[in-house]
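STRUCTURE:
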């Protein structure tokens, strides 16, 4: 049993703002078990009562999880007064407590998890957890074994401490090189700064995975979908694992 106010239930599920919901309820557009709801303060059981807005059932979920293929040109933030954010790319209605897990630069694309599960988010980002993140990158310049060695050793990128050992796999070396980088940290502009420390420039960056979660290549940039049960199962293992 999870009893809560009707307007809270509906606003948490992103149906509308509390102010607009009050109006919707007054106009009989919200029903509970088939009957128009009388008032916003009505207490409903989020698990058993059938709530509908304009005839469309609204199912209560404590947590929501979305995978977004972040496109370039969009900022990783929940809200921004001037620029389009990753949250704007999720289908409406959207609940207001969703946030991106970690940050991709405006010109980086790829996997971004968006959720209101703060504990999972914290676990994925906690430095002590060393959750691996894999990126595909195109580099202006020839990447070679000396660079691989430097990544393994850890690089001075101007922070207090050098980077942790990172894996650099070369797919193709040439004037432009194509590589896969795996890091276990999430410092600001980390991959760009690691290559800069080696006098090379990242010209394209795309995140492929974060812990057990892999980007669904069927998602075009800008597209999102809910996580599957299988993906959630893997993330819950990480959420519930004790820190080593
Ligand atoms: N490293 C970067 O430099 N940028 C990103 O967006 C992610 C990792």
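SEQUENCE:
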């Amino acid at each position: 049993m999870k009893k809560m106010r009707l307007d809270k239930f509906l606003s948490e599920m992103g149906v509308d703002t509390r102010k607009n919901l009050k109006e919707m309820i007054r106009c009989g557009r919200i029903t509970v078990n088939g009957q128009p709801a009388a008032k916003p303060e009505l207490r409903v059981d989020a698990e058993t009562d059938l709530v509908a807005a304009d005839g469309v059932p609204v199912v209560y979920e404590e947590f929501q999880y979305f995978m977004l293929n972040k496109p370039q040109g969009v900022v990783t933030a929940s809200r921004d007064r001037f620029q389009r954010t990753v949250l704007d790319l999720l289908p409406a209605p959207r609940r207001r407590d969703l946030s991106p897990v970690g940050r991709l630069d405006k010109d980086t694309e790829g996997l971004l998890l968006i959720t209101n599960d703060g504990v999972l988010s914290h676990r994925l980002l906690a430095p002590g957890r060393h959750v691996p993140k894999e990126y595909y990158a195109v580099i202006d310049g020839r990447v070679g074994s000396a660079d691989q060695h430097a990544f393994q050793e850890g690089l001075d990128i101007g922070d207090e401490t050098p980077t942790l050992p990172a894996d650099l796999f070369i797919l193709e070396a040439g004037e432009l090189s194509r590589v896969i980088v795996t890091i276990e940290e999430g410092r600001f502009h980390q991959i760009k700064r690691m290559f800069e420390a080696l006098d090379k420039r990242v010209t394209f960056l795309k995140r492929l995975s974060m812990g057990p979660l892999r980007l669904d290549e069927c998602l075009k940039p800008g597209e999102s979908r809910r996580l599957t049960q299988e993906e959630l199962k893997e993330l819950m293992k990480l959420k519930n694992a004790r820190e080593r």
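REMARK: The helical segments are 6-12, 18-26, 118-125, 145-153, 190-196, 229-240.
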